[in-house]
Amino acid sequence: MKRVASFTLFLLCVACFGVSAVIVVFAWHEPVHSSPLPPLPTLVADPQVIDFGKISAGRVGGNAVLTNVSQKPLRILHVFVSYSCSDVQLQEGIVPPGGSVNLSVVWNTHGRSGKTKTSLSIIYLPDGAEQRQQRLTVVLRADVADTTEGAEDLPRV
Question: Is the N end or the C end of the chain the one with fewer CB atoms within 10 Å?
Answer without folding.
Answer: N
